[in-house]
Amino acid sequence: MYRGKLLDEAFNEGWAGKTLTEITPPSLQSVIIGASSHCASSGCAVYTVLRTSDGAGHALDLERLLLPFGDNGRVQVILASLQLVSLEGMVERRSAARKFEAQSQAVLAVRISAANAGK
Predict the structure, then answer these.
(1) Which helix (H) or strand (E) holds 83?
(2) In whole angstroms, how far apart are CA 29 and each of 22, 32, 101?
(3) How far, in Å, are 23, 26, 34, 74, 108 from residue 20 at the CA level?
(4) Which residues of 93-108 are buried (b: 16+ CB within 10 A; e: fewer)?
(5) Sheet of strand 105-112: strand arrangement
(6) Residue 115 and residue 67: Cα distance in Å, rounded?
(7) Residue 60's CB: how many other CB atoms inside 10 A?
């Protein structure tokens, strides 16, 4: 429904009215859509980290937190927070999407149950 201007800068594509399958590159569909589907079906928050490298060989991580919202045990909206992180190099949003499409690996996937939120 809404995406920030930094996401537009990274992807430079019109996403309005498109499904996640339509906008996710084929090489990333299993991890991106898999985490989203799990969030929707389980009602749990999902945190994932995908890793690629920048032009200088430094690790570049895409941290993705999915938060489910709904009513009567049914997820109706998923809020996604995305963060690009490089501890050693510079993050170039305009080229980062292509780097993740070309080569990336899932380095972390965590499900966070709402039942455990207060613990």
Answers:
(1) strand 74-85
(2) 10, 5, 10
(3) 5, 11, 11, 19, 21
(4) eeebbebbeeebeeee
(5) 74-85, 59-71, 45-53, 105-112
(6) 14
(7) 24
pTM above 0.85, yes or no: no
3-state helix, strand, coil in the chain (%, to 5): 35, 35, 30
Which amino acid makes up residue 41?
A: S
User: Closest by alpha carbon to 45, among 24, 73, 64, 61?
Assistant: 64
Element (H, E) at 109: strand 105-112
- The confidence score (pLDDT) of residue 11 equals 57
Q: What is the pLDDT along the chain (119 residues), one digit of tens a residue?
A: 445 555 555 555 666 677 888 888 888 999 999 999 999 999 999 999 999 988 788 899 999 999 999 998 899 999 999 898 988 877 777 788 888 889 999 999 999 987 765 55
